[in-house]
Design a protein that fits this description.
With 132 residues, the chain is of the alpha/beta class. The chain is 47% helix and 20% strand. Helix 1 links the parallel strand 1 (7-11) and strand 2 (31-35). The two termini are 19 Å apart.
Length: 132
């Protein structure tokens, strides 16, 4: 029996970072959707009908929604969505205070290995929930 490819949505306002994350995830075997802000993410969710297992979002997204607001808006439509927040050290305390069981955070800068390890950990939470 073949495993289903898991779908990850990346929200990152910096083009180069978004491209790198998309490449790392595709090389790791995931289906990747990406966008630069929360509004675009909501449009993608509507178009896909909610078929996503993980959201990876930067906390600071420039104008519009921040990563927390984007995650909240997406989860209001898809409550089972797991969230991996990314941010620099200045956000670490704020992230730690907010973390729920279905949320984790990754401090920037990070290595490709620590990034993919964090993704695998989050997606294992999805599988455990399905199996339980």
């Amino acid at each position: 029996m073949q495993d289903t490819v898991q779908t990850i949505l990346v929200i990152e306002d910096e083009d180069a970072v978004r491209s790198l994350l998309r490449t790392l995830l595709r090389l790791a075997g995931y289906e990747v959707l990406s966008c630069q802000d929360g509004e675009e993410a909501l449009d993608l969710l509507e178009a896909r009908g909610g078929a996503m297992q993980l959201l990876i979002t930067d906390v600071n997204l420039g104008t519009g929604m921040d990563g927390f607001e984007a995650a909240q808006a997406l989860r209001s439509r898809m409550p089972s969505l797991k969230v991996l927040y990314m941010s620099g050290e200045e956000e670490a305390d704020r992230l730690a205070e907010r973390a729920e069981a279905s949320e984790r955070f990754l401090l920037k800068p990070f290595t490709p290995r620590s990034f993919t390890d964090a993704v695998r950990t989050m997606l294992s939470l999805v599988k455990e929930k399905v199996v339980s």
